[in-house]
Design brief:
The complex is a heterodimer of chains A (about 100) and B (about 280). Chain A is mainly alpha-helical and about 100 residues long. In chain A, about 65% of the residues lie in helices and about 0% in strands. Chain A has one domain. Chain A is elongated. By secondary structure, chain B is mainly α. Classes of the chains: A mainly alpha (about 100), B mainly alpha (about 280).
Chain lengths: ~100, ~280
């Protein structure tokens, strides 16, 4: 399954701006997403913003990456730009479908 | 749920009680499924979205028309051991089986489209399951004409290989997603009621799996007298599981206000963020 744009964006940043190689960058983001309960193929920019804020910093510090706050701030800025061109939510996602299932009339 | 009613049970008070409980459980299962299936189809008509249509029709096909018509066909035959195998009874058996298995395929399609829509391997699993199911159903029709409801040939085994296992896929996916939603809740990214709905649907699917096994395993026993001896226990167990399943589905799809408040109140997280 293809990666979501938000996942690809964060991996791309970590690969280019830190000492992490591509597999390590992807693995780190995957771990953060798993910790937060998301899949790399479906996470939205808005959801990724919260992961960047609450989960990813600890993962990066554990890897002794410098200027974690600077990296996260930069990623958030790019995610915000990505977010403006993205629909707020996929109506076919499992959470959207199950949210509707309780609203039958 | 099998196609028995309390009338076919033995004469002891315990047997009569078990039969009555079984009848109540079966009726509750069919009626609640009718309400839920209808609501989901209406929801789909309102929203224009397909997943709720697949699930609604799947529930109507399996639990309402599938079981309902097959129960009527057994009654028309004069009971499970009845000899009144009229064209009407055979037609009802055929219609019930075809509608039930169409419902099974739709429930599987719901699971595929909601949880694994871009997964090629899942599509293969879905295709194989539907192929085996319909080979069994149609093969049973061609070889027996649906005249003997106790015929256990190769096609029957193919059909039941899917009927006995299909709820497990939905249960697994829903439990997995429930775990993800619990993690999101800690970040304020998930609605507790929706997270709980994944759990309830998984429990309902496991209940469907258990009820199907309890109701049908005596059919494969080589000695019918053994099955007869276990009948009362089996009716009680099937009815209890059926009522628990109906309760899980009701709370998932028709959550009352007190249940919504209870779920919202016991969760540590606040209002979910807009993500």
């Amino acid at each position: 399954m293809p990666d979501s744009p938000a996942f690809a964006l964060v991996c791309d940043h970590l690969e280019r701006a830190t000492s992490l190689a591509r597999p390590a960058a992807r693995g780190t983001v995957r771990l953060a997403l798993r910790e937060a309960g998301f899949d790399p193929d479906s996470v939205t920019p808005a959801q990724m913003m919260v992961v960047i804020e609450k989960v990813l910093p600890a993962e990066l510090r554990a890897l002794h990456i410098g200027d974690v706050d600077g990296h996260c701030s930069s990623i958030r800025g790019r995610l915000r730009r990505l977010q403006t061109g993205v629909q707020p939510g996929d109506p076919q996602s499992p959470e959207a479908v199950f949210a509707r299932l309780g609203q039958g009339s | 749920m099998t196609e028995r009613t309390g009338e076919e049970l033995g004469e002891s008070p315990v047997d009569v009680l078990a039969g009555s409980f079984y009848l109540v459980g079966t009726l509750a299962f069919v009626l609640v499924s009718l309400v839920i299936g209808t609501r989901l189809v209406r929801l789909s008509l309102r929203t224009g979205e397909r997943p709720e249509l697949y699930l609604g029709l799947g529930i109507l096909g399996t639990a309402v028309f599938g079981y309902g018509i097959q129960i009527v066909s057994v009654l028309v035959r004069g009971g499970p051991d009845g000899t009144n195998v009229t064209p009407l009874a055979v037609g009802l058996t055929a219609a019930g089986k075809l509608l039930h298995d169409a419902g099974v395929a739709l429930v599987l399609f719901f699971v595929l489209t909601v949880f694994r829509k871009d997964d090629r391997r899942a599509r293969v699993v879905f295709g194989m399951a539907v192929l085996v199911l319909w080979t069994g159903t149609l093969g049973l029709g061609f070889t027996t004409g649906y005249r003997d409801i106790f015929e256990r040939n190769l096609f029957w085994w193919l059909e039941y290989a899917v009927i006995w296992t299909y709820p497990l896929w939905g249960a697994y996916e829903s439990l997995r997603y429930h775990g993800m939603m619990r993690k999101r809740q800690r970040l304020g990214l998930a609605d507790p009621l929706v997270a709980n709905r994944f759990l309830l649907w998984a429990l309902g699917s496991l209940g469907t799996f258990a009820a199907t096994w309890l109701a049908s395993w005596p059919m494969v026993l080589p000695d019918p007298t053994v099955a007869r001896g276990l009948e009362t226990f089996n009716y009680l167990a099937t009815a209890a599981v059926g009522i628990a399943t109906v309760t899980a589905y009701s709370l998932a799809f028709l959550p009352p206000a007190w249940y919504r408040r209870w779920i919202a109140g016991r969760e540590p997280t606040g209002t979910p963020q807009a993500a």
